[in-house]
Specification:
globular; 6-stranded antiparallel β-sheet; Jelly Rolls; mainly beta; Tachylectin-2, Chain A; 496 residues
């Protein structure tokens, strides 16, 4: 039994009188609370967990510490929806009260088995500030929505020989009539790995070994978190979050980063033949993504729109972070592409369209709210540098700039008065092939922007915390360009 205690390791059952209600009130009127992104009422949110379309409804669970905007005793919070737009908050799905999860119900995934949703997660155990262990656990959601922890938990106790206590984030999938579990792991030489278990019934598990993954990752990578595996368009795809990657040109500019791998999985021989891999996202705030099969078996993704070990401006209001919008994945020309899920179109309300010609100047598009969708096509580009600025005011703005000479696109959030994360830089960038036109598709929601360029070829996610006041969209260029745009005001998702 774990013997390490700290005030932050308590559950909601140990809340003081009116404590949770007071936390809810403290952040209720935050101007930065998103309108249609999944976010916590109070406390800290991080990884999406257990994503599923089950029994006619979408279920999203997420890591949640209720008492402050810090990483403490993690619960699984729970929201559900019939349409990916209107979300209902449900009672907390997993509260870590058992010895096998004494320091938190950590991340995991779900799979439907015999008409029930099997929810796998890591029971975190700490023996001190450094020493830890991990158990893999199971909870089951029945068709009526009730969730019960498996009576014989943990289903995998401890970690295999050769690995530290950093073993977590189970991803379970079925292949050729058997079940397999991928786990992020750390070897005892402090390098990252993915280990594999197998099962006939998705309950009794046997250690199979370590996945041979031929990636040219440096030895500085000390952990592979949140492995996610799926098949798409005849390809095997692995998404994983390596910790310890050093910045390299436009790549890996965040403290923690995410890559995807396309290739061929040979599960019998525990090998993954790599055909292509690269960084999945180029923004500031994107980590621990998880995918699942949607209503029509499309592959959908949510990510934590946050980053560890960074203090965000909303922390002072005792809430932190949100999830990305749902994104549909595709493989185009051997690359994994992210696009906004089709369901997001249901949020659209008022439409404004326009065409502009810019010649070494700046033009503005008015915004009547801070929650909108913006589609912009740059055509007939005669400029070498051009772009747009979101959340733009006299003193603030999120600047997206295209550089034709360098064949790059960059995003800069330095201008905000509530600046944060400066130790990791204010600019993120990517190579970009320039054709006859450039397409920009952005979702703006009070304190987050998600920007899809050229139909998802490059994607940036950025949290920003603007002060109150009127905002516009600014378009700028150092030469003549023409462009056309569509701007939709977006509705509030029902998630209070």
């Amino acid at each position: 039994m774990a013997n390490y205690t700290e005030p932050k390791y308590r559950t909601i059952y140990e809340a003081k009188e009116n404590e949770l209600e007071n936390l809810k009130k403290k952040s209720a009127d935050s101007i930065w609370k998103p309108a249609f992104h999944i976010h916590p009422q109070y406390g800290l949110m991080n990884d999406p967990n257990g994503l599923a379309y089950f029994n006619g409804e979408f279920h999203v669970f997420y890591q949640w510490y209720p008492f402050d905007a810090i990483h403490g005793m993690k619960h699984w919070a729970h929201v559900k929806s019939k349409d990916l737009i209107n979300w209902e908050r449900l009672p907390v799905a997993l509260v870590p009260v058992e010895d096998y999860e004494s320091h938190g119900a950590y991340s995991g995934a779900s799979i439907e088995v015999n008409g029930k949703l099997y929810m796998y997660y890591t029971g975190n155990i700490k023996y001190g500030t450094e020493e830890r262990s991990a158990n893999q656990c199971l909870a089951v959601m029945n068709s009526d929505g009730t969730i019960i922890k498996y009576e014989k938990n943990p289903i995998i106790e401890g970690v295999p020989e050769g690995y530290t206590g950093h073993v977590r984030d189970p991803k379970v999938f079925e292949k050729d009539g058997r079940y397999y579990m991928f786990l992020g792991a750390q070897r005892t030489d402090l390098t990252g790995a993915i280990i594999v278990y197998e099962s006939d019934d998705a309950i009794d598990w046997t250690f199979k070994g370590e996945l041979k993954l031929e990636l040219d990752l440096p030895e500085s990578v000390y952990m592979l978190e949140c492995p996610d595996y799926f098949e798409l368009n005849g390809n095997d795809v692995l998404v994983v979050s390596p910790q310890g990657l050093a910045a390299e040109g436009h790549n890996y500019q965040n403290l923690y980063n995410v890559i995807y791998v396309i290739g061929i999985l040979d599960i019998d021989n525990l090998s993954f033949e790599v055909h292509h891999y690269q960084e999945l996202e180029k923004g500031f705030d994107f980590y621990a993504p998880q995918t699942f099969a949607g209503k029509n078996n499309e592959r959908l993704l949510y990510a934590w729109a946050g980053m560890g070990e960074i203090e965000y401006p909303s922390d002072k209001e005792s809430w932190a972070h949100c999830l990305s919008v749902p994104r549909e994945l595709d493989i185009v020309d051997g690359r994994l592409i992210q696009k906004p899920a089709e369901e997001l179109k249901k949020l659209r309300k008022d439409l404004k369209t326009g065409e502009l010609v810019i010649s070494q100047d700046c033009r503005e598009i008015e915004c009547s709210s801070e929650q909108y969708e913006f589609e912009l096509d740059f055509n007939e580009v005669g400029a070498s540098a051009f772009g747009l600025e979101l959340f733009a005011s006299e003193t603030e703005g999120l600047m997206l700039e295209f550089d034709r000479k360098k064949q790059t696109v960059s995003l800069n959030r330095e201008k905000f008065q509530s600046a944060f994360g400066e130790e990791y830089g204010f600019v993120r960038s990517s190579d970009l092939e320039f054709g006859s036109s450039i397409k920009v598709h952005a979702f703006v929601d009070r304190s987050i922007a998600e920007i899809f360029i050229n139909n998802g070829e490059v994607v940036f996610t950025a949290r920003v915390f603007p002060k109150e006041g009127p905002k516009v969209i600014k378009l700028f260029s150092d030469g003549k360009i023409s462009c056309s745009y569509k701007k939709y005001e977006l509705a509030q998702g029902i998630l209070m």
